[in-house]
Design goal:
Elements (H helix, E strand, L loop, with lengths): L9 H11 L11 H9 L2 E2 L9 H7 L7 H9 L3 E5 L3 E5 L3 H12 L10 H14 L2 E2 L2 H8 L6 H14 L2 E5 L5 E5 H4 L11 H16 L4 H4 L7 H13 L4 E5 L2 E5 L13 E3 L10 H8 L20 E6 L2 E11 L4 E9 L7 H17 L4 E4 L4 H14 L1
Parallel strand pairs: 12-13
Antiparallel strand pairs: 1-3, 2-3, 4-6, 5-6, 7-8, 9-10, 10-11, 11-12
Helix pairs in contact: 1-10, 6-8, 10-12, 14-15
Length: 394
């Protein structure tokens, strides 16, 4: 099948992606969190807390006046559930059926990360059945009171395997601690669902990806998913043949998109500080291909080898990535540390960019409950450029 060249200019392509990512027109009002997660398809859960956790940060950039309790409310109201996308994530409740595509093979013997002993899994399940939702720590504390028959590592593996199989689901307490509960008790409306066929699941992946990413390759649609590439390719080919989808070639890659795709939202003169786990940046190769931005989160890089810092946020200005900033919230002191601000070569230090960056930093500091901002490291001209504005914030 011969591919046409891209019908979109590079600028149009970037802006379409930002639009479909929900960054150009934040949601507000009742149900805003659920609408954002539905648009994105998932919001990744992460426990790193040098600043506010990633799942809250993703929503902060897409929901006006976002507060973490809004996510907790959406989960409590069963608009969202927690399971696995390409990683642990909050997902729209209407997608619950599609989680069976991963759960049922695990129940049938497929392994996730480990293979806990079946008797121990049954013991864990029965304990929760009798006592209700329990935190993981119960199984170490119980050991000292019940003859030591629990051992933390095997018990943790049993809990995680039961969760991945779908027998258990997760509740979150205010401090982010997991509670495990029987899925049949927590989501009684979700126990009689039929698993999707391979073709249905492929169509679901395609729909969710193109809805949230505007354009995508087969590899991007199947990102960190097992055993789906052949079906996705077949479904894409059929959709293009029938005119339900279109495709184009760019830099040796074939991208797919909906023929209804059109830019409807204006790109504001704004800076976004994005989480390393943000849906826009999580696929690093895609980020390079579409935005020309080479980004690496350095949490797992040895300190001596880091180029920017432990937890650096991509800095997006209008429709271009212009740098990174390594951040840390000193919450007791109410101080947001900008440990290293590094701008991309050629970034112009205009007054418009300065004002947009200062506004974004102030909003991000407020989000992290910090009243002051301190810039520790940047090029001398960048420090001078920002100094007066940062002083005014603090």
């Amino acid at each position: 099948m011969k591919q046409q060249s891209s019908p979109f200019s590079p600028t149009q392509l970037r802006q379409l992606v930002l639009q479909q990512q929900g960054l150009l027109k934040p949601q507000q009002g009742q149900g805003a969190v659920a609408r954002v997660v539905r648009q994105l398809g998932y919001v990744q859960v992460d426990s790193i807390n040098v600043v506010e956790r990633a799942h809250h940060h993703v929503l902060f950039n897409r929901v006006r006046r976002y507060q973490p309790d809004l996510l907790q409310q959406a989960v409590a109201q069963q608009q969202l559930f927690e399971y696995w996308a390409h990683a642990a994530a909050f997902l729209p409740m209407e997608d619950f059926r599609f989680s069976l595509q991963r759960k049922l093979p695990l129940r049938a013997g497929e392994t996730h990360w480990f293979s806990p002993e079946q008797p121990l899994m049954q013991q864990v399940l029965e304990q929760i059945r009798q006592q209700g939702p329990l935190p993981g720590r119960f199984f170490t504390e119980a050991g000292s009171n019940q003859g030591g028959w629990w051992n933390w590592q095997p018990a943790k593996q049993a809990l995680e395997q039961l969760f991945m199989q779908g027998h258990l689901s997760v509740l979150r307490q205010g401090n982010f601690q997991k509670l495990y509960e029987l899925t049949e008790r927590l989501y009684p409306q979700c126990t009689e669902l039929t698993a999707p066929s391979a073709a249905e699941f492929a169509r679901h992946l395609i729909e969710r990806t193109l809805q949230s990413q505007a354009v995508a390759t087969v590899g991007q649609i199947c990102y960190l998913r097992k055993n789906c590439k052949t079906q996705v390719q077949q479904q894409l080919f059929s959709a293009v043949q029938e005119g339900r989808l279109c495709s184009f070639a760019k830099d040796g890659q074939v991208y797919f998109y909906s023929p209804q795709l059109a830019l409807t939202d204006k790109v504001p003169d704004k800076v976004w500080l994005l989480s390393p786990f943000d849906n826009l940046v999580i696929q690093r190769e895609r980020l390079r291909q579409l935005f020309g931005f080479d980004y690496q989160m350095e949490v797992y890089v040895p300190a001596a080898q880091r180029k920017v810092g432990y937890y650096s946020l991509p800095v997006l200005y209008r429709d271009r990535f212009v740098g990174q900033v390594d951040v840390k919230a000193e919450r007791k002191e109410g101080l947001l540390l900008l440990q290293h601000l590094q701008l991309e070569p050629g970034t112009r230090l205009t007054e418009g960019f300065r004002q947009a960056l200062l506004k974004a930093l102030k909003q991000y500091a407020d989000f992290n409950q910090c009243q002051r901002i301190e810039l520790r490291r940047a090029a001398p001209e960048v420090q001078d450029w920002l100094a007066t504005g940062l002083a005014a914030i603090g």
